[in-house]
Amino acid sequence: VAMTTGVGFRILGSAPGDSSGRSVSAAGDVNGDGVDDILVGAFLADPPGLVANSDAGIVYVIFGRNVPGGATPFSDVLLSSISTGSLVGFRMLGAAVGDNTGYSVSTAGDVNGDGIDDVI
Predict the structure, then answer these.
(1) Which residue from 9, 15, 105, 110 is spatially nearest to 53, judged by alpha carbons?
(2) Where are the beta strands (DSSP E) in 46-88?
(3) CA 93, CA 35: separation in Å to the nearest integer?
(4) CB-CB neighbours of 36 under 10 Å
(5) Nearest-5° Cα angle at 110, 98 to 89
(6) pTM value?
(7) CB neighbours of 86 closer than 8 A, spacing ≥ 6?
(8) What are the sequence ranges of the domains in the chain?
(9) What backbone torsions phi and psi does residue 112 show, to the nearest 5 degrees?
(10) In this predicted model, what pLDDT tens digit does every residue of 78-110 receive, in sequence order?
(11) 3-class SS of residue 81
């Protein structure tokens, strides 16, 4: 993630016990804006619509951005605020009890040849 020297941000977990940040990786440039993005796994998270303690898991994609001199940098990134259509990123939800989506996250490169890095 491109940042001005001395400027950074914290990534805050979504819920106690969800293992947010157990797996973290560079994602490449997933949204095609020229700045690398970050993957954060939370493999014990309970996605919306599933029972508590489902451990279906969630992977969060946090968009990187350039912070030109004098611009306001990211504040803390709260994973629970990331959803589809978010300017900060998006999330991929485990679909079933015990999926453990996000147990391991990694960059995939440009799998489909469209010039934009992909997440698997």
Answers:
(1) 15
(2) 58-62, 77-78
(3) 24
(4) 16
(5) 60
(6) 0.85
(7) none
(8) 1-105
(9) -100, 5
(10) 898 898 778 889 999 999 999 999 999 998 899
(11) helix
User: Whose CA is closest to 38, among 48, 21, 24, 52?
Assistant: 24
Contact predicate 37/29, CB 8 Å:
yes
Which pLDDT value is given to residue 20? 94
Alpha-carbon distances of 5 from 8, 43, 51, 63, rounded to whole Å: 8, 32, 43, 18
Which residue is associated with the tokens 């995939």?
108
Q: Are 2 and 64 in contact (CB under 8 A)?
A: yes
Query: What distance in Å separates the CA atoms of residue 21 and residue 62, rounded to the nearest whole number?
Result: 12
Please report, in angstroms and rounded to a whole number, the separation of the first and last CA atoms in the chain.
19
Per residue in 15-55, pLDDT (tens digit) is 999 999 999 999 999 999 999 999 999 999 999 888 888 99
